[in-house]
Each structure stands twice: as C-alpha cells, then as structure tokens.
Amino acid sequence: MKELELKYGCNPNQVPAKIFVNDGRELPIEVLNGRPGYINFMDAFNGWQLVRELKRATGLPAATSFKHVSPAGAAVGIELDEVMRKIYFVDPAAELSPLACAYARARGADRMSSFGDFIALSDVCDVATAKLIKPEVSDGVIAPGYEPEALEILKGKKKGAYNVIKIDPDYKPQSVEHKDVFGITFEQGRNELPIDKELLKNIVTQNKELPEQAAIDLLIALITLKYTQSNSVCYAKGGQAIGIGAGQQSRIHCTRLAGSKADNWLLRQSPQVLGLDFVDGISRADRDNAIDLYIGEDYLDVLGDEVWQKTFKTRPEVFTKEAKQAWLSQMTDVALGSDAFFPFSDNIERAGRSGVKYVAQPGGSKRDQDVIDACDRLGMVMCFTGIRLFHH
Known about the structure:
Layout: E1 3-6, E2 17-20, E3 29-33, H1 38-58, E4 62-67, E5 70-76, H2 82-87, H3 98-108, H4 111-114, E6 117-121, H5 127-133, E7 138-143, H6 148-155, E8 163-167, E9 176-181, E10 184-189, H7 212-226, E11 232-237, E12 240-246, H8 251-267, H9 271-274, H10 284-296, H11 299-311, H12 321-328, E13 334-338, H13 346-352, E14 356-361, H14 368-378, E15 381-384
Parallel strand pairs: 6-7, 7-8, 13-14, 14-15
Antiparallel strand pairs: 1-2, 3-8, 4-5, 4-6, 9-10, 11-12, 11-13
C-alpha cells in the first residue's frame, strides 16, 4: 500500500487527507484494526521513533504515551514495586513482562494527560501489556508486532474500533524531510543525532559523580525531549519520565510545569493519597480527577460535600500545604533534561525544589557560569551535551 486515505486532517473541515511516503515506496505500516486519523498517525510515528531510540540507548523495552504530538510519559522496562503498582492501577498479583512494566510507567506518570492517548511500544505487544492497555481510555497503539492473543484483546476495545497499527521495524526514512506551512515547503535534514552516554561526559560542576541509573534517567529525559514540542523540559527518575513541560515560550515555565507534574507523581505515593477510600465502581478517570484535585488544592473546599460523597466512602482529611511539603522534601536523585540551554539560574533553583540532582543541557548561554554556580550550591551534577533538541 503506497498511500492511505484519512477521514480528514487535524479538523473535520480539513479535507482531503492522506499519508504516503514521498519517494513512492510502500507505507511501512499495516492497520490491523480501527481507522486511525491524522493526529493518531502523528502521535504514532513520533512515539515509535521515541521508543525505538530509547530501546537502542538503554537496551530495555520502552513505551510512551502520546497526546497531541508530545509525550505525556515515556519509560523503559524496570520492574514495578508495590507502591508503583498501586498508583498505576496495576493488579498486585499480575505477572508483568518488561514491556508491560514500561507501558505501566509511561501511562501512569501523568494519568491526567494520558487520557485518550496513543501508545507506542518498542517490542512485540505481549498479552501482559495488552491486558494493561485494555481498561485504559486510549485511541490506539503502534508496535512492531502483536502476539495473537494480545491482538484479540486490543481489537475488543472501543466496541471493536480501537486503532492497532503494526510498523515495519526495519523501515528507514529518507535523510531529508519536508513540511508544508501556508503552501510553502520547508526542507531539512532529519535529526538523526544519536543520544547516548557519550553526551554525558562533559560534567561541568564540582560534583562529578554520575551513577548508572542517573545516566539512564538523563538519556530517557533527553530522548523524550527529542520528540517533544519545544520549548521543553523533562524530569525523570527510576527509568521513566515523571514530569514533562512541553510547548512553553519561556524555559522557566517549562521547568515549573514539568516540576509540578513531578511533584504530583510523588504526592500520589503519599500515605494520604494511597489511603483514599473510593466508592465502589468509580471510573479510573473520575479517580484520577479526584486525586489531582485532592493533591492540588483543598479538595473539600473546592468540590463541597455533595461531590465528595459521590467519590469517597469516607470523608478524606485535608492534605495540608505543610504535609505536602514535608512529603515532597523526600524527593531525591531526580534527573532533569532541557532541550536548550538554561538562560538563568532560576530554572536550577526551581528544579532543586523537586529533588533534582542530575542535569543535562546543551550549555552555551552567556550566563552558563551562573547556572553552574547554582548547581554547585545545591550539590548537583550537570552535563553540557553541546546539542540542542528543538522539535517542531
């Protein structure tokens, strides 16, 4: 198949719409179920590149959860502990493959943003992963293949309309890419720069101790940023992105947005949240919304008695600002990547409040020394990669 006609483009009024390969080759994909749309394919192809590169850099199965051409989460296949299983809604007794662990982490990091996502998997989708995908609200998945039973599980989603795409893992795009804007064609070389541990060797801070896990987390952050709408910043820990700030005009706003998501990820592991007693039959989405409000504000004041009674079996205690700060103060050893240099040290100060200890950024600002000094004050390790990772 050399081209695939789509129902419409980004919006229903944008017709005609189709996908094809510019050089006339066959499309490297096969739609096994559903009818993916324009935005679905944009998410699928960006997500596939991300997980393919994560697998190449770490040697571990990888997964990502995409929404509107930016990842909401990305992770590699590191085993889940009891707390991670609980906050990611994974059965404590379920047997998980490394790929399933990667997916659970990618989907669970920012569940609010992942609602209605498009999933990309680096490896053949197995039954364990399909079972985790089944109860989630999602538009589709792309992978290099599917176990027969896993495919049947996925085909049953959305009343049989769930989008399942198989991609040829050996497909190599042309080295030059094109994009049309306002009837004008832009041409550029593809960003084929490999992201690996060589980029982390130029450590510019006094503290130069970069453990193996921290290096993996920095690679996850940088590869995630390579496929995130710029400006962007990514916090990572334990083999997964835990906070992504995408598409902001100011870098400090990226750092704040991603930092607030990283904070929420840790707050969801607190005894206050783990102890919430939800009513039977509540949907995952309603539970996610309730948790987000509970950790973000005074939940009882925001929604009032009538609403909380529909959500919880017992009235939850207020999660005070002081209690939240005490819990967040335990956050340590977080990695932070930035797609371009930090122009001011305020980014480092904000990152430090979310437990950041390891930083990777291009460097090249007139105020690099101010940023280095801020890292030194906070005992951080910072690498200058020398590369910018803008993505538009």
